[in-house]
Fold this protein.
Amino acid sequence: MKDAPMQASQIEIVPFGPDHLEAAVALSRQAGWPHRTEDWQLALALSEGMVAVEDGKVVGTVLVTPYKGDCATINMVIVDETMRGRGLGRKLMDAALLAAGDRPLRLVATTAGLPLYQKFGFHETGTVLQHQGLAGEIAAPAETEAATDADLPAIATLDRLAFGADRQGLLSYLAGIGEFAVIRRDGRVSGFACLRPFGRGEVIGPVVAADLGEARKLIEHFIARRPGRFLRVDTTAETGLSPWLAEQGLAHVGGGITMKKPLVRQAADPAVTTFALASQALG
């Protein structure tokens, strides 16, 4: 008599612990993602994580990153390629929704993941455009300067206006592992950008500015300081930044689909716009 095929219901969903980290890195590499151990540690420090385990092996991951009570992002949803088609993605999403509580939710979907998220009530809201490449040699803009610790409250305020949620915890973490640049108007911070290690090199983001010109200057601040280095920027289609990034040698190499649940259109603050994401996982 043949054994019955193993069902997804036999897979256990457990809290993401330190002993799961190595397996999670391996899963993200299997998916073609560039995340290092340090990149997972950043996300885990800010998130509640769950893993799917079968016979002691990690076969799936999901993280929920809350921004206080304002919203949460669901990210790092990965299913081992040998386990697909068994309902594991749905089980991971069930666990994520439970962890998120009643917060409004955001995520960036792949084309393959889109149908699953739509079944959970997520709606498309836009497109993420991933740009990366080796930085060219450009002159440093005169309008920007390195941020100081005293600028962090102003940076957090601008980010909240642009993103629509309080991400002070994320910004404080990024300040510890990377660096910020700012633009000032009348002595006050009017825009900022962050640079930090990620994946194959470094990522510029978030970038929040009053207009496209200021956003370019903030990105130029870091490009000028990293000639020949591998840089990545995740922007959105509506910002208009993508063609300029390509001109700087940062080619468009892919992206994702932004989604929300419920579909509530944030009232945009006319003073600031998010021109580049902290990451596709963290928004």
Remarks:
- Helices lie at 21-30, 37-46, 88-100, 114-119, 152-163, 168-177, 212-223, 242-247.
